[in-house]
Write a structure and sequence with these properties.
The chain is mainly α. Helices cover 91% and strands 0% of the residues. α1 runs antiparallel to α4 (117-150) and α3 packs parallel to α5 (156-169). It is flat, with a radius of gyration of 19 Å. The two termini are 34 Å apart.
């Protein structure tokens, strides 16, 4: 009974967190980028940032595969899957954060130029908030899923530790 309540609480909090992430992302994206030079520079920065992230994720994926293979050998395939699940959630949060940050950069600059310090601060805060809320939301959602899937499993601590290891490694 208590476990079901905790899982429902994790699911509810995760949905609320996802709503906040979407709201912050929408709030950033609804601000127009009406300066062609700024839009061009921002696009170049975004391309560079996403290229960096893609190359970084290739290396991280290799590390995750190697650690996952070792974990399969030492802890079993379920531990490796939990590790992989945590890693994927962390990678997803990083990707969403990078998209939001690069979108917020140009809008923060234009807000400072056109509307002042407060508008620029709020735009930057919302841009960073996307990443913060995405990390917390995906971590909590992953924890809820882990509780639901493995709470009664005899190796629950190993499964949960493997998930956390994957999430924190990435």
């Amino acid at each position: 009974m208590i476990a079901s309540y905790q899982i429902l609480m994790a699911a509810g909090a995760s949905l609320m967190g996802l709503a906040v992430v979407l709201y912050l992302f929408y709030s950033i994206r609804k601000q127009p980028v009406d300066n062609k030079k700024a839009a061009h520079i921002a696009n170049a920065i975004k391309i560079g940032a996403m290229t960096f992230l893609r190359e970084e994720y290739k290396i991280i994926a290799l590390v995750v595969l190697v650690v996952g293979a070792l974990l399969t050998y030492v802890g079993g395939y379920l531990a490796a899957l939990c590790f992989l699940f945590g890693s994927i959630l962390s990678l997803l949060a990083g990707y969403i954060g990078m998209v939001a940050a690069t979108d917020a950069n140009v809008r923060t600059t234009l807000a400072a130029k056109d509307k002042g310090e407060h508008a620029a601060f709020m735009t930057a805060l919302f841009g960073g908030g996307v990443m913060g809320f995405a990390v917390a939301t995906f971590g909590l959602a992953g924890l809820g899923i882990m509780l639901h899937a493995f709470l009664q499993h005899p190796d629950f601590i190993k499964m949960l530790s493997s998930f956390a290891f994957g999430a924190s490694l990435v």
